[in-house]
Specification:
single chain, 223 residues, alpha/beta, 5-stranded parallel sheet, 4-stranded antiparallel sheet, elongated
């Protein structure tokens, strides 16, 4: 199922688009404000964003610029009544990949979404996220609520292993094996304890990173 965010404050249009795309096996999350969209994007990156221009708390082009500053590859389609040539040009200048003017045919919108996803691939697979902590697998970077966090190699590999197993409890023994032993770096339990403490400190003690007493650790969404 393809994850898609739709930023739209008109409940009737949002319902129609959401219902249609979900029949096409999309998971559609509707955001009624730009602030809500920003918060969701910090927590999880979707495969594509549909974006209206006029929103209650600002203009969609500002959100598009913000998206481009953080996720250059994330596909964005404007879906708006603003169909003047100047508006369309401005939309593309502000980072949109496509521009659809209301009213529109749902079949045409779906075709444009499919074409864009074919060109861009599944960008969402590039990112692992949990409660605002995000790993960019291509760039090997980590951010916490959009602020980049600098980790040591051991801290990064520890976080990566936990994120790849999000929702599962992983034992200390398995972590030692996968993060250190497979690379020929045989360390003891104390090394894991110290690395975990440093990781938690750098991530500001995230609630999503849980200790399972006498077993190991688990990452899970709490928001």
């Amino acid at each position: 199922m393809v994850d898609l965010y739709y930023i739209e404050d008109d409940p009737n249009i949002a319902f129609i688009v959401k219902e249609y795309l979900e029949q096409k096996h999309f998971k559609v999350t509707v955001c009624v404000t730009l602030a809500q969209a920003r918060q969701l994007l910090k927590e999880r990156v979707p495969a594509l964003v549909l974006l209206d221009w006029n929103m209650p708390d600002g203009r969609g082009d500002s959100l598009c610029q913000w998206i481009r500053s953080k996720w250059k590859e994330l596909p964005v389609i404007f879906l708006t009544v603003r169909g003047d040539c100047a508006d369309i040009v401005a939309g593309f200048k502000n980072g949109a990949d496509d521009y659809v003017v209301k009213p529109f045919e749902l079949e045409v919108l779906y075709s444009r979404i499919q074409a864009l996803l074919r060109r861009t691939g599944h960008v969402a697979r590039q990112y692992l996220s949990c409660d605002g902590i995000m790993i960019d697998l291509n760039r090997h970077t980590v951010s916490c609520h959009s602020e980049e966090i600098h980790l040591s190699e051991a801290e990064y590999q520890l976080l990566l292993y936990l994120m790849k197993n999000k929702g599962k409890t992983v034992t200390r023994e398995k972590i030692l094996e996968q993060v250190w032993d497979v690379k020929g770096n045989y360390v003891n339990n104390n090394t894991l304890t110290v690395t975990m403490k440093r990781l938690r400190d750098k991530l500001c003690q995230p609630k999503c990173l849980k200790t399972v007493r006498s077993v190991g650790y688990r990452m899970e969404d709490t928001i």
